[in-house]
Amino acid sequence: MANERKLSGPTLIEQVLSESLGGPRKRAFLATMQQAVPWEQLAKPVRKLYRNDAGKGGRPNVSAVVMLKCLLVQKWFGYSDPQLEEALLDSIAVREFVGLGQGDGVVDETTMVVFRRRLREAGLTTQLFDAVLGHLNQQGLIVDEGTIVDATILQAPQGKKTKDASGEVKDTRDMQAGLTKKHGRSYHGYKAHIATDVRGLAKDYRITPANEHDSKRFDELTEDETKAKYGDSAYMDKHRKKKLEEQDIFCGIIERRVRGQGELTAEQKAHNKKVSKVRAHVEHVFGWGWQMGQFVRARYRGIRRNAEDIGWGLIAYNLKRSVSLTAA
């Protein structure tokens, strides 16, 4: 059984100070998330990653709940590892939310790196994403009226070629990333393909090299959808449209002109107008991601690490948006 470190937690004085110091919106948000997230449910599989038995010695690990809260605080506020460590040092509200008292120290940068590696090696991010999705579904927040798919580019450093002392050429570029063009501009990196429900809650995701066409992941991300599938014109394909019609699934993909067609028909324009109102909800996840720096660039080298990063970004987004939808 995992031997978790015992924390003193915030004292009464610290709780009083938390109520009188710092930004009221941050305090209110963290207080809401404290109640809204099923912390113990999420922590249960995480605890299995630790095997340090108190009877065999060794330093106790930081509580799984504390580590999950730290990870989500990073995503909710766009903190890097050093910024999180700083927030845990100087923000009473963040310390109280995480569960640290003044005598408990902080979760440092190295601890966060090791924790993410544990999650990645165990493949837990997808499992926890599904657990959060199941939690939201039980609350009736996932609307079963269709699936919207969209993609965005995550830029990675271009890298450069250098020669070592022996004259051997070394390339610092991320070799798992891909090169693509959009609106005449070249991009090197990855693509985040995201599927949401019709209110913008993320239901699934895939990360690919940037040179993979958007449409290749559309069918995979909407495989279980039986009512309606939405997407922009990049996903329009006559064979896909015909197949959806045969399956009696509404084809909510934006129509585009075909070769030789001067302009869209009145029917196509009406279809696009109707579909665009629904498709707009996918912008909730991308808008939040861009604001937090989540969908601006690839934070890591390699597709697996970036997939884990996007997965946690979507977990944080879903939990935050669920609060807004519940209030609404």
Poorly predicted spans: none
Determine and state the CATH class of the largest domain. Answer: Alpha Beta
Mean pLDDT: 88
CATH architecture of the largest domain: 2-Layer Sandwich
Explain this structure:
With 328 residues, the protein is α/β, with parallel strands linked by helices. The chain has two domains: 12-122, no CATH class; 136-327, 2-Layer Sandwich (Nucleotidyltransferase, domain 5). Helix content is 46%, strand content 15%. It has helices spanning 12-20, 24-36, 39-47, 64-77, 81-90, 92-98, 109-122, 124-138, 218-221, 238-246, 266-279, 283-291, 303-327, and strands spanning 147-155, 161-163, 169-171, 178-182, 185-196, 202-209, 228-231, 250-253. Helix 10 links the parallel strand 7 and strand 8. Helix 3 (39-47) crosses helix 4, helix 3 packs antiparallel against helix 8 and helix 5 (81-90) crosses helix 7. It is globular.
In terms of topology, how is this protein built?
Blueprint: H1 12-20, H2 24-36, H3 39-47, H4 64-77, H5 81-90, H6 92-98, H7 109-122, H8 124-138, E1 147-155, E2 161-163, E3 169-171, E4 178-182, E5 185-196, E6 202-209, H9 218-221, E7 228-231, H10 238-246, E8 250-253, H11 266-279, H12 283-291, H13 303-327
Parallel strand pairs: 1-7, 7-8
Antiparallel strand pairs: 1-5, 2-3, 4-5, 5-6
Helix pairs in contact: 3-4, 3-8, 4-13, 5-7, 8-13
Which terms summarize this structure?
328 residues; Nucleotidyltransferase, domain 5; 8 strands; six-stranded mixed β-sheet; two-stranded antiparallel ribbon; alpha/beta
Q: Outline of this structure?
A:
The chain has 328 residues and is an alpha/beta fold. It has helices spanning 12-20, 24-36, 39-47, 64-77, 81-90, 92-98, 109-122, 124-138, 218-221, 238-246, 266-279, 283-291, 303-327; strands at residues 147-155, 161-163, 169-171, 178-182, 185-196, 202-209, 228-231, 250-253.
